[in-house]
Each structure stands twice: as C-alpha cells, then as structure tokens.
Amino acid sequence: MKHMNSEVKEERTSNKKRIDLFLVPIVLIAAFLNLFKIWTDEYANAYYTAAVKSMLQSFHNFFYASFDPGGYVTIDKPPVVFWIQTISAKIFGFHGWSVILPQALAGIGSVLLLYVLVKRTFGVWAGRFAALAMALTPIVPAVSRTNNIDSMLVFTLLVATWMLFRAVRTAKFGWVLAAFAMIGVAFNMKMLQAYMVLPAFYVFYVVATKITWKKKIAFLTTATALMLAVSVSWAVVVDSTSADKRPYMGSSQTNSVLELAFGYNGINRLTGNTSVTGSSHKQPAQAQQQTASSETKQTSNSNAESSQSSNQSKSSSSQKMQAPGGGNQNGMFNTGNPGPFRLFQKGLSDQISWLLPFVIFSIVGLFAGVKFKGPYTAKQKESLFWLAWLLPVAVFFSIAGFFHQYYLIMLAPPIAAFAGAGAVALWSMYKQHNGWKSWLLPSGILTTAALQVYIMSPYVSSIGVAPIAGVGALGVILALVLAIRKERKNSVTNYLGVAAMVVLLAMPAYWAMTPIIYGGNSMLPAAGPDSSSGMGGPPSTATNSKQSGFNGMQPPGSSDSNSSSNNQMQPPSGSSNSGQMPGGSSKNNGQMQMPSSSSSKLSSSKRKSGGMNAEVNTKLLNYLTKNNTGEKYLFATTDSTSAAPYIIKTGKPVMAMGGFSGSDPILTVSKLKSMIKKGEVKYFYLSGMGKGGQSDVITWIKENSKEIPSSKWQSTSSSSQQGPSGNGTLYEITLK
Q1: 465-484 and 491-517 are packed helices; what angle lies between their axes, rounded to 10 degrees?
Q2: What is the pTM of this model?
Q3: Which helix (H) or strand (E) holds 99?
Q4: Exposure of 116 by Cβ count < 10 A (0-12 exposed, 13-18 middle, 19+ buried)?
Q5: What is d(CA 358, CA 490) in angstroms, rounded to the nearest whole number?
Q6: 3-state DSSP call for residue 678?
Q7: CA within 20 to 30 Å of 446's CA: 168, 177, 220, 411, which one?
Q8: d(CA 666, CA 692)
Q9: Which helix (H) or strand (E) holds 706?
Q10: pLDDT in tens, 245-289
C-alpha cells in the first residue's frame, strides 16, 4: 500500500511540472491533421448530419436520435455521439464543421491520452513516440475529420483505460466502476464494438491488482453489472416506449434497439449476414467492382479522351488483380479477403498496418524472459493490456464477414502504444548488447521498411517511384548500418536510430495528410491518394480525387449527359441494396441517387461529401414547397439518401419510408393510406424498385397516384435521371 501511495504522490508531483515541450509539436500535428479544412465539408456524412438537424428541433427528436424532423425513423446507431454533435451545433450553429468538430477534438484527445498512458510506465520518450504514432496513423485523422462515430468511440475507450490504470495504481474500487461504466457509455455510441476491449480490461485487472481472487471476482462482477446496466439503459427506455409514441428504430427488423445492437450492429458484422433478406455479400462485392468500373468511366467523360482511356485501362487491370488464393485482393469495399494476413492486404494495410512489423518485434522484446506465473513488472502488465486489446481486435478484422476500413481505428491505440514502448525497449536492448535481443531493433526497422514498400507499390502512378525507393533504400541502409555498428557507442549511432524512426514514420505521415491534400469522403472515410473516393484502395479504382462524393459521381439530373448511361445497375427486386452499412457507408454503396440537382459541379470551396454529391434540386424543392397544403412531410422517398439533403437544407420533415437503405419494414399499405387520409403526406419521389418489405408499398403508390410531369420539377439541364435504379419519378396521391 505504501508503494501505491508513493506512486500517487509521484503522479501528483509530476502533474505540477511544466508542459513537455516535445509534446507541443505532436499535438499541433494532430490538430492540423484533424482540424485543417474541416470547414470545407458542408454536409459531412449527410445521413448523420440530417439527424443532427432534426435533433435540434425538439427534445423528442434529440432523445431518440431521429433521422427526420417528423420523428418517423431513427438513425442506425445509439444517440450519445449525436447528442454531443447536436450540442456542438447548438453552440456554434448548424454547419458541417460544427458536427465534425467533436470527433476532431476526440482525435486530438486520443493522442494526448495515449501519451499520458504510455509515459508513466515506459518513460517520456515512449510516450512521445506513441503519441506521434497515434497522430500519424492514417485512418485516425481520416475518421476524425468526419461526423462518423469511431473517433469518439476510441477516445471514450482510452478514457476508460486511464480510469482502469488509475484503479490498479490506487487500489480504489470506485475507479474500476468508473472504467467499466465508461465502456457502457461507449456501447451507447456504437454498441458491441465497444466491447472489443473487454478482454484487455479483464486480463489486466486480474494480473495487475494485488488483492485476493475473491475480491477480484467480486469487483469485476459488480463492475460488469454496472457496465451492462449503463449499456442497455437507453435501449430499455426506448424499447419500453409504445411504438406509436416514438420513431421506428432504424435498420432493425423488429423496431427494437436490442435487436439492432446484437444483430445488425453486432453478430452480423462477424458473420457478414447484414442483408435483411438473407442474401450473401458475394453479390454486393461484385456490384462494387462493377460500380468502380462504371464510376471510373463516368468521371473520365469530363476529362480528355486520353485520360479516359487510361482510367478505364487501370480499372480493368484492377479487377484482374488476384489475391493469394484467388479472388480480388481488395475484397468487398477494399477490406481484403478473410485470412491470417488480411491486415497486410491492400485497402487495409495502408490504413493501419505501417508499423505492424515493428510492433511485432516490440512485443517480442517487451515479453522476452517473462515467466507465465510471474511476477510481472509494471511494463509487462501494461504490455499485456495492450496485447489483449490488439490481438482480439486484429483477429476480428482478419475473419469478419463485414466491416469498413475506418473501423480499423480500433487498432490504432495498441499499435501506437507498442510502437512507443517498443522503440525505447528495443533501443535499450540494442545499446546494451543484450544478446539476440540486440538484433530486434535493426530487424524491426528492416522488415517494417519492407512492408511499407509493399504497401506503397500499388500507388506508383500516384506518388511516383522516388518515395517508395527512398523508404526501401533508407530502411535497408539504416538497418544494416545499425547492425554493423552494434558494438559501438557514440552519438552517430544515436542519430542513426532517430533517423530510422523518422523514415518509418515518413510515409504514414504523408498518408495521414491525404484527406487534406486530395479531399476526404465523410461517408466512407479512408486515407490514401484516392481518399476522396471513399474506397481507400489503390489508384486503379480511384477517380478524380479533387471531387467529393462517391468517386466524383454526378448527382442525378445533372448537366453531364455523357455519364447517364454508365450507372444503370439495378438491384434485384426485393433486395436490400448491396448490404453496405450506414455510418460512413451506404448499404447500396452510394448507388441510390437523390432527386436531381440544378448544379452538376461541386463548389471548389465547399465539399458536399455525404457519400455522394448531396445536392438539392432547387426546382423540385420549390415545387414541393409551393404545392404543400399543410402536409406534415415535404415528400416521401424510399430511403435516407434522397431525403437527407432536403432535411439539411430546409429542416422540414422528409419521410424515408424504408429507413436508411429503404429495406426497413416500417410502412404498410394500410398505414400509408391512413397517413395520406390524415393529410400527412401526398408527394412521393421514387427511383427504381421497392426494396425488402417496401415492395408492396411502392407498388401501391404507383398504382394509386398521379405522376407529376418532370418538366414541373426536374432540372432542365438534363432530361433524364441518372442512377443504377433508373429514372426517378415524382408522384402525388390524395385520398378522401
């Protein structure tokens, strides 16, 4: 106990010391990567931005996280992050940047927290390097520059980690409760994804605390019960409320938060069974490849003919590239093919894996000589914590049936922690000529440089040969020189070690800047020279990176008539789109177009990167507003993609009849008839076939409505609607 008290006293003393001047530039780098130019993102992820607009209008919408101002359907996630975004929008005004700001600050906060967590046990230089590695992990700023949830989720889990570490140091049960309660809060951000860290929390507390087993079990049981109570608190309130007094729980099939948590946002992510119709992901993956090809052709129509041929050629060659064992190596949504080396495949490796070989060598060094029965040092205990975070999450992403690239931010904290702690540990072993351990540093540098060359090689056409050759050559040279000079102790060797770390962080730093350099995608955030496409794959599937949206896709009804024939893919009737998920994704892979826009080009100063060009057709809006005779909803449409821009623009209710993707079983024909008779809705914008449970509703609308001539509402710049589902049509229904 005296030792624990001395640690607390030492911590208080250290907190009174002046700010670490080496930390200041690291924080400034993180601030630049997370904040610079977020003000150019006008809509951010339009699905979530529309929800914030709705939540600003009433406490009812705020509490339930309603997607639309009418309280018809919620978004597909719990509300905590969106409560924070709504408060930010209330304080700073409703803007794209004001809903992004909380996540950007969370990204910076995660860098600071990792510094604090690593510094105390592994030393100040370990903390500095860990913080820098966290700041420069490409997927971290890529996600933090959007209004997606994951950056705030990671920050919250790091706060919980700080509480757990403090609980062990102070031997106070209150901190254990606080740590697990914070995981419960994180559950109300992104549900079961928050529980990925539980193995680390349980293992660390059992190993690190010096109390009896009886107390360990009692404390952990109580803390877990509290965590579960906090986790389901909002769900219990919502599910206990009568369905007619709250919005439908979006993306669930039974109007239940708990079903959403453990199904759609839970086990289905592992199995890949995210389609409500039970269809597999093979079809969406194929559709994605076709989409990438058609989008490449579409964008190239606005360029020179030579550029068009080049892009189409690259797209064709990309689809022919096979991964080991067969199949397209990029996998669905560029998440590779399941297997032990998935994190080293294209599309994932350039988001998170730049330092993984160095981390592996660091783990070997940090655990060298550890005996299973202990005793364990503080460094070994905390190393065990980070390992118990890293391994289960890495295994999940290696075998999961469905996820998106930006989910990989969950791996950033343990990778950065091991990079910082390992750099110091391996350097110490190297300097002390500690037998075989002294070879870990040059070996780690060499293999890490080799992996980075492999990661960059598909991007030769975008970044050139020089940086790839430079990293490879310098990595080999520095590793060899360090190996040769292993027996010497002088300042030159120190400089060589620093130079090696700089080389290993150079390209991750560049990759982390790509959302600023090339533009990002708020719907499918990913880093890389094609970051604006939201695909995060090699440049063979990228298009005009200066444009936002989904690979620069033009909004339907735009003036680029050359592209109208390139996006006519139509999903099978009754399908649930392509199985892609909201929250930085689109179940139809961004294919369901919203009503036409009067502008075919994005503003150079404002990006509307809601996964597509989230533009509003002014002529349609004027027609609907002029002819509204008191209806609650401005219009109804199949899914949120078409509704979101109009909610953001007007703040008026727009009904997404089938929720995010159009496949939620919310509406029935009888319910729709009742709403029309009550005068709640009379205009319907439909594009393509009905999806999932909506097919009967769509059929009834078409059979009982009056079609509005397109000349009254469609932009005159184009005579046809684009989009894979065919031409969009506006209908009017009035019932007595």
Answers
A1: 160
A2: 0.84
A3: helix 96-122
A4: middle
A5: 24
A6: coil
A7: 411
A8: 11
A9: strand 706-707
A10: 999 999 999 999 999 998 877 787 777 665 543 333 333 333 343
